Amino acid sequence: MSIFEYAPAPESRAIVDIKGSYGLFVNGEFTDGHGTPFKTVNPATEEVLAEVAEADASDVDAAVKAARKAYDKVWGPMPGRERAKYLYRIARILQERAREISVLETIDNGKPIKESRDVDVPTAAAFFFYYAGWADKLEHSGYGSTPLGVAGQVIPWNFPLLMLAWKIAPALACGNTVVLKPAETTPLTALLFAEICQQADLPPGVVNIITGAGATGETLVGHPGIDKVAFTGSTGVGKAIARTVAGSDKKITLELGGKAANIVFDDAPMDQAIEGIVNGIFFNQGHVCCAGSRLLVQESVADEVLERLKRRMSTLRLGDPLDKNTDVGAINSAAQLARIHELSDVGEAEGAGRWSPECELPANGFWFPPTVFTGVSQAHRIAREEIFGPVLSVLTFRTPSEAVEKANNTPYGLSAGIWTDKGSRILDIAGRLRAGVVWANTFNKFDPTSPFGGYKESGYGREGGRHGLAAYLKGADA
Amino acid sequence: MPTTPTTEAPAATAAGSAPGGDFSDVTRSDASLRRFLHGLPGVDQVGADARAASLGTRSIKTTAKAQALDLAIRMVDLTTLEGADTDGKVRALASKAVRPDPADPTCPSVAAVCVYGDLAATARQTLGDSGVHVAAVATAFPSGRASREIKLADTRDAVAAGADEIDMVIDRGAFLSGRYLEVFEEIVAVKEACGPAHLKVIFETGELQTYDNVRRASWLAMMAGGHFIKTSTGKTQPAATLPVTMIMLEAVRDWRAATGQMVGVKPAGGIRTAKDAIKYLVTVNEVAGPDWLDPDWFRFGASTLLNDLLMQRTKMRTGRYSGPDYFTLD
Catalytic one among B167, B171, B212, B276? Predict the structure, then answer.
């Protein structure tokens, strides 16, 4: 035994009360769905957590009608300064109940408690605070102050509450009402958020949460009663949604996949670059659309970077997501785990060198060790396709131009990272990268004041900051 | 996975370092030394602070906490460095160093007692063969503003009085004006004057200010043969901080990878609570590796820290907090 073995330090789950079954949240009330209820499980243990209602077409219709009525009668006409009060109230409740929400998010999603506690929940609250501030200042946004109407929003399972906040906060601040569908594997924090809407006395129908899988989402985005579609998720589904919406009057924003290049130059602050690489790909088990899944490292320092990276990866702690010392949690679902296995096996078959630190995976649940592939070329599938797991592909480059060329040589364009001590190089490279977000000497930093979104197959539209208002105001087209 | 393989390291070499620890080319002239130190990878302050803060969020409970508290006690250099120090004060401190908790014989001794050179003999007399070391500050501590001759005499004097560890200060003026060779040579000279005593090199990181400077000073002191690198005198604010200590731990880790030799690290000043001490141990564990979790390789320069460690230790064993009056004042 080591001299200093960290004892288990689990966060108590007693703080959260998970019900046996959950209904839909429509018009301010929880109602039964008319579809076939489904189960949501804890991916770390495969324990069934609750049964959740499925919204069928009639439920979607009821939710859209409730949202329309609330838009016409209450929320649309309400002055911005009054809407702001509700948003501030929601933000404060999110903070007050942060611990409860964090534990629930970790149980339903599999992410480490330190991430839900230190990133997801505080950032979600920050988005509500930020957009609450905009509600009475929309005439200074540059996009006018006229809302679109009813927004249909579909969000993914990787940051369930945070993605909800990214969608709902700006929509409400601008005077729209929403029907939101969380992912079928992670519906619980959205349903807890519904309770928070009740607690905040939000007028009925302003926020409606409907649960279900792909079919429910399809019905929602195809519903003629909505004015706007906002989607975050895979590029495949994004394309399908774009086809559904094409030819209608609906506005649309899509935030899709990514295959971000994290570029490390030979003059990088080395220890911090290693941290950035680790944070870029192993944060949230790599279930991050903007994950730095392609490491582009200058050949002259490639061996050193790899050596240091492996040493650092050996200190990552994988295990019980509720343990406060866990760095890498569970993969969200069996389906996602299968996809990660499949692409990793392809990587190996295509000749890339595979390495993972020694690490014991729990017997139950869905787990994948932090993995790095070396000797990867642009032609490898693991360098081109989004794996959405803790799998890093390492490529090398010789000159700054080659780095830019390789970084841009992907159908995606969501994010990128640059590591160098040279300020002029940061500015030069950032300007040549075709990615919506470029981080310099850091990675995976999210702030409500900063717009986020993609180029090419990573989607269109921006979320966050002043630019994020454009997605929910009529004047954006003018 | 938490158990880190630490022995298979090499490969990672700092920019331009010579294999096997031969740095004679580097230290040949001011120019070559400067080229080497400025060629070390930079430190991004924001990133370093963030990393240290995240290490500080580790939750150390139950058995791990009990282990950590005992380890931290064994790593304390119990310090008194006041103008008002007397033989009596040092004798009291030395007794406490041997038996920090008179009510509990299972409580380990601290690593060393740290005093001014003129009181080293007193400390030695009281400590006898207890195994607790006598550390003496020397070289015109804390400012280091004296001639080389005086600094060396100061050192020899302390060693002769029974100190087996010397805590020297570097010439920050020379360092900040870029006269690295002068700093290097002075450390070499002091080390020679130490004879068999171990040498700890104090940077006074609060005066060096930048993390890049801390990394350069670390390499400079290691090349000069220091057994320990130490953050601060405790006389300047800020004294030890977690990010600064982390950068020094990165330096000793990289030094071992390049040369195979281990160098110790001692944060000093400002670490007052058991909670803080545990954060440092986590950082040692995850940055340098578990090999450094030993009083031979990591020390806390502290005075008030010890009592908090003792209080927490008693709490772990009895389940109750005792008031401060149940622990000796020095």
Answer: B167
Nearest to A4 among B9, B47, B68 (CB): B68
Taking only Cα atoms into account, the Rg of chain A, rounded to an integer number of angstroms, comes to 22
Multiple choice CATH, B44-317, 3.20.20.70, 3.40.50.2020, 3.30.310.50, 3.40.50.280: 3.20.20.70
Give residues 272 to 311 of A whose Cβ lies within 8 Å of B: 272, 275-276, 303-304, 307-308, 311
* B266 is an active site residue: yes
The nearest alpha carbon in chain A to B286 belongs to: A315
Q: Which of A255, A386, A457, A463 is catalytic?
A: A255
pLDDT at B322: 86
Residue A89 clears pLDDT 90, i.e. is over it: yes
ipTM computed for the complex:
0.94
A267 has a chain B CB within 8 A of its CB: yes
Residue A289 in tokens: 């659309």
Cβ contact A269–B63 (<8 Å): no
> Whole-model pTM?
0.94
Q: Does any CB of chain A come closer than 8 Å to the CB of residue B179?
A: no
Order of all β-strands in the sheet with B165-169: B264-266, B228-230, B198-202, B165-169, B133-137, B112-116, B76-79, B300-302
CB-closest option in B11, B13, B47 to A441: B47
> Is B86 touching A (CB cutoff 8 A)?
no
List the domains of chain A with CATH numbers. 13-256+456-477 (3.40.605.10), 261-440 (3.40.309.10)
Active site residue A47: no
CA angle A228–A231–A235, rounded 5-degree value? 135
Q: Which of B65, B230, B279, B308 is catalytic?
A: B230
3-state secondary structure B153-196: HHHHHHHHCCCCEEEEECCHHHHHCCCHHHHHHHHHHHHHHHCC
Q: What is the pLDDT of residues A356-378, one digit of tens each?
A: 999 999 999 999 999 999 999 99
Is the CB of A358 inside 8 Å of chain B's CB atoms?
Answer: yes
Does B165 contact chain A (CB < 8 Å)?
Answer: no
Q: What tens digit of pLDDT does each residue of B57-87 get?
A: 999 999 999 999 999 999 999 999 999 999 9
